[in-house]
Design a protein that fits this description.
The protein is an alpha/beta fold. The chain is 33% helix and 20% strand. The chain contains 6 helices and 7 strands. Helix 1 packs parallel to helix 6. The site of 5-O-phosphono-beta-D-ribofuranosylamine (GRF) has 13 residues, from helix 1, strand 5 and helix 6. The site of 5-O-phosphono-beta-D-ribofuranosylamine has 13 residues, from helix 1, strand 5 and helix 6.
Length: 201
């Protein structure tokens, strides 16, 4: 399976996926990375893996579809089977999703049934939760509305700050994303991964 990873930010989830591909924990070959933010740390992270990276600033396009069209044209020769959104901060329209039906997944730092959109860890702290969860889900045209693939809990400890919660949550995200993606990319692909029995939906 050929995998393309999209990111807008620091790229820690992107790095976790690319590392897992390299180490054989994810049965996929990373073929390219797309970033809409020219200042994102994800760019150098992807380059360090020797991946072709397409930096495509959405502000240079007059519509979402035109931006997506540029990305689709760049991706076409790379022939990805799956697209993994890893902190990609753009909503995808049906124009893009039609090209990869059922093959676009996302990681979200909350339970998508309880909190959609950005700021998942801020939300969990504000709500006073003692536990939150992170979610891997299929992407549809809504914001974080696609079917859930897997979730994992993140403890919220007394005295947690946004930084401490985010650090603990990201570690859980990295592990869950690899495990969940391995599960959907190939039946039985998650066998042997630590904790694979713990994937809950
Ligand atoms: C993660 O919390 C992810 O769940 C959310 O955006 C953040 C991206 O972090 N969608 P990183 O760029 O992968 O470090």
């Amino acid at each position: 399976m050929r995998l393309a990873v999209f990111a807008s930010g620091s790229g820690s989830n992107l790095a976790a996926l690319l590392t897992a591909c390299e180490e054989g924990r994810l049965p996929a070959r990373a073929v390219g990375a797309v970033c809409n933010n020219p200042g994102a740390g994800a760019i150098s992270r992807a380059e360090r893996f020797g991946l072709p990276v397409f930096v495509c600033d959405h502000r240079a396009f007059s519509s979402r579809e035109a931006h997506e069209e540029a990305i689709l044209a760049w991706l076409r020769p790379l022939r990805p089977d799956w697209i993994a959104l890893a902190g990609y901060m753009r909503l995808l329209t049906p124009h893009f999703l039609r090209a990869y039906p059922g093959r676009v997944v996302n990681i979200h730092p909350a339970d998508t049934r309880r909190h959609k959109g950005g700021g998942g860890y801020e939300w969990a702290l504000r709500e006073g939760l003692t536990e939150t969860c992170v979610t891997v889900h299929y992407v549809d045209e809504g914001m974080d509305t696609g079917d859930i693939i897997a979730q994992a809990p993140v403890a919220i400890l007394p005295g947690d700050t946004l930084e401490s919660l985010e650090a603990r949550g990201l570690a859980v995200e990295h592990e869950l994303y690899v495990r969940a993606l391995a599960g959907v990319i190939g039946p039985g692909a998650a066998a042997g991964l630590p904790g694979s029995a713990g994937v809950a939906t």
